[in-house]
Design goal:
Order of helices and strands: HHHHHHHHHHHHH
Structural class: mainly alpha
Distance between the termini: 34 Å
Largest sheet: none
Number of strands: 0
Helix content: 55-70%
Length: 284
């Protein structure tokens, strides 16, 4: 082909065809998500099958992680520091807090990398990008359900019987899942453009864990600082989780504030995600 022909070809500055969602300003296009439900199920199944491939203990790691953390904190805080948890045995109190925390931290960690891990899919076809971090969170939810078996054993061992508060448990788990989804969506979008997001995330999660009443009761926080828990949605979720299972006092103010903060965070994260997703295929 003559060289002069190549010199006459020029590409447009803007692409002729753009593959993007119909309503970029909406929070969640549920019709679009529902139409891709089979792809969502496929992503979840793919991650579940590949999770423990070529591992010795396999799914036992789901149970060992919160169990070993419970053992370590029981020795150092329960025996040496002697953290007071009222009538609830400290190992049971601790595991009931570490169980939702382990799910949340693992879901946010894996969800924040979900878009980068699915880069080849994103650059080739259109799909509602939000289902990618949602699938990562759903996989971790299965871990939460498996590890809950140990909590039931602990409750039987210590003679704890379920009360009417157990009816609140599904709401607590749903709120925890939505909070994990909000953080996963936001951080996965930021991680596409700013790769140091993944570097800062472990530090953020570590600080968040010790700032939340997970390894200690909320009553240990001085009265003048207890108002800060109202802006920490994990505080209300963890305390509500313990109240639903162990029959502890139910702090309505803390739980209601956590619900409000969770839904505000979900709305804000979804807006940021929808605004940024049109550039994922170019940047990733």
């Amino acid at each position: 082909m003559p060289e002069s022909f190549h010199s006459t070809i020029s590409l447009p500055e803007e692409p002729l065809i753009k593959i993007r969602p119909r309503r970029p300003w909406s929070l969640i296009d549920f019709r679009d998500v529902w139409s891709h439900r089979e792809l969502f199920a496929l992503l979840v199944w793919r991650d579940l099958k590949g999770r423990y491939k070529q591992t010795i203990l396999g799914a036992m790691w789901v149970i060992l992680q919160p169990l070993l953390m419970t053992l370590v904190f029981t020795i150092f805080l329960g025996k040496l520091v002697r953290v007071q948890t009222g009538a609830t045995p400290y190992p049971l109190f601790l595991y009931a807090g570490l169980l939702p925390w382990t799910f949340f931290s693992n879901a946010v960690s894996s969800g924040s990398y979900s878009l980068l891990a699915s880069s080849q899919m994103i650059t080739k076809v259109y799909l509602p990008r939000l289902i990618i971090p949602a699938a990562a969170v759903t996989v971790r939810l299965s871990d939460f359900l498996v590890a809950s078996v140990v909590l039931i054993i602990f409750m039987r061992y210590y003679g704890i019987h379920l009360g009417w508060q157990i009816l609140l448990l599904p709401a607590m788990v749903l709120e925890l899942t939505l909070l994990a989804l909000a953080l996963s969506a936001l951080l996965s979008a930021l991680n596409v453009k700013f790769r140091d997001t993944g570097t800062a995330l472990p530090v953020m999660l570590q600080v968040w864990m010790f700032a939340s009443p997970i390894i200690y009761p909320a009553s240990l926080i001085p009265e003048r600082w207890r108002w800060t828990l109202l802006f920490n949605p994990l505080a209300g979720i963890v305390e509500g989780h313990r109240a639903a299972l162990l029959g502890r006092a139910f702090d309505r103010t803390l739980v209601v504030s956590s619900i409000v903060v969770t839904f505000v965070a979900l709305a804000a994260a979804t807006i940021v995600f929808r605004r940024m997703e049109k550039s994922f295929a170019d940047v990733i």
